[in-house]
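Researcher: Sequence of DUF2087 domain-containing protein follows. Predict its structure.
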Amino acid sequence: MTSHPSRPVADLFSADGRLKAIPRKPARREALLAHLAVTLFEADRTYREPEVNAALRAVHEDFPALRRHLVTGGFLSRTKDGSDYRRQQRPGSPGGAIPSAA
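Model: Prediction complete. Tokens:
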């Protein structure tokens, strides 16, 4: 069976909405991160680190790893001091953020 990057991510979550595991395969992990970015974080809003942690902790206990993957994958941007985060628009992302006018 061939894995498709566009495959829905619903099978990664248990019935209670918690993430079973962070996928190791890059394409699956990227699909998950895109889903989390769009569903947990509003476009054009700045989040403090405790808010990001709380949102990610609601889906998985390893929220620091999820936060790091979201930042390194370009789904969230972080200020140099690590205190503020914003959802980023990624070209071609389904349901992606509206482009910034800035």
